[in-house]
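Suppose a colleague, Dr. K., hands you the sequence of a protein chain of 272 amino acids and asks what its three-dimensional shape might be. Before reaching for any lab equipment, you can write down a predicted structure in token form. Begin with the sequence itself:
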Amino acid sequence: MRSLAAVESWPVDNVSVAVLGADGEVLGTAGDQDRPYRLASVTKLLSAYTLLLALDEGALELDQPAGPEGSTVRHLLAHSGGYDFGERTVRYAPGTRRLYSNAGFEVLGETLEEVTDISFADYMREGVLSPLGMASTRLEGSPAAGAVSTAADLTRFAAELQSPTLTDPGRLAEATHVVFPGLAGVLPGFGRQKENDWGLGFEIRARKSPHWTGANSSPRTFGHFGQSGTFLWVDPEARAAAVCLTDRDFGPWAAEVWPPLTDAVLAELADH
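The predicted structure, expressed as tokens, is then:
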């Protein structure tokens, strides 16, 4: 794809990008697809999917208590349990504000471990990574931000998000629609959003502005970006997905180059 040539001018040492069309077909790549990168918060997509499988299997229920008093699995997945970003300090009553929280995902991981006696990393590997052939992906620490992966592996995962085989499509549809609509909050790196929409672990594009996806991304676009300079999005209306991994931490440079890349990709796909 011509649009991917833009990454050659990015202020990074290494970048790996892949774009998928309908049904997971890889339409274009740039960079080494097998180079491993830290995912940072893109890890949450893998962890959320792991938790969806746990829901399917009955190991967890969305409305079972987890985290602060009054909070549930649903609240923690939707970043509305009330926890601080990194500490288990309660800042708000559950369901009243979207407070993005690594701590919430760590509690979710511990909750699953307690009821299954299986480490979260093993549950992820057995339930998600191995079935999808993601042999180069591993969870080295926190379910919130501890995974390492490659563009090739995340391409397999993005294809799964477009057409699920491991969970019921209805389950994924629920996870990629807004949970607790209308909650305000701060989108890390992009400031306060009057409606900081989120699904069950998946950030929803909706009408957020500014945002890390493109100006022309559909409101139904879902995914995540990471502070290690990474992102994955799926746009159901464009029937497309993209994976981007870099070796430079997120900063103003990323907020400047990511949205134009996405818009260029979408425009190129629309022309064909």
